UniProtKB/TrEMBL annotation:
Organism of provenance: Peribacillus glennii
UniProt keywords, alphabetically: Oxidoreductase
Name assigned to this protein: Aldehyde dehydrogenase family protein
Entry's family note: Belongs to the aldehyde dehydrogenase family.
Upper lineage: Bacteria, Bacillati, Bacillota, Bacilli, Bacillales
One Pfam family linked to the record: Aldedh
Domain Aldehyde dehydrogenase: from-to ranges: 32-150
Family matches, as InterPro entries: Ald_DH/histidinol_DH (IPR016161), Ald_DH_C (IPR016163), Ald_DH_N (IPR016162), Aldehyde_DH_dom (IPR015590)
Length: 162
């Protein structure tokens, strides 16, 4: 299903005026040596605008979209102007800038100068419409728990805060 969605996005993207597809193969972007199934060459869409469908949807494939930006505020606005927020990556020589952007971008996981590094000790999950809850880490246990508060007054006088 994921590969099918990726191919559908590639077909849609290939029909967008002024949106250039960059990959090592000619269209369709099929992986050589694979005659059956859905396999896609790593593909980059250049000259993408923030309102284009490819910039607004989660693709889940070897597909990237390159969007030009003017400054940090522009990057934050484009990154947060979507209904999704599963993961994001920031590539920069300035670590303080990377951490500043990571704080502002609305995404469940943000990598700085790396990508798709996961560890069982760090929670993974998205913001907005990119899922509910968290996988991995202690937060993953929350889905299996029903939290209850039990308050007992053992004093002779009633305990009240109001």
């Amino acid at each position: 299903m994921i590969a099918y969605k990726t191919l559908r996005v590639l077909r849609i993207g290939s029909s967008i005026p002024n949106c250039n597809i960059k990959n090592s193969a000619s269209w369709p972007a099929a992986v050589s040596g694979r005659s059956e199934g859905f396999f896609v060459e790593p593909t980059v869409f250049a000259d993408v605008k923030p309102d284009m469908r490819i910039a607004q949807e989660e693709i889940f494939g070897p597909v990237g979209a390159v969007l030009p930006f003017k400054n940090e505020d522009d990057v934050i606005e484009m990154a947060n102007n979507t209904i999704y927020g599963l993961a994001a990556a920031v590539w920069t020589k300035d670590l303080k800038r990377g951490l500043r952007l990571a704080q502002e971008i609305q995404s469940g996981t943000i990598w700085v100068n790396t990508y798709q590094v996961l560890t069982p000790s760090a929670p993974f999950g998205g913001f907005k419409q990119s899922g509910l809850g968290r996988e991995l880490g202690p937060n993953a246990l929350d889905a299996y728990l029903e939290t209850k508060s039990v308050i007992v007054d053992l004093n002779d006088q009633p305990l009240t805060f109001f």
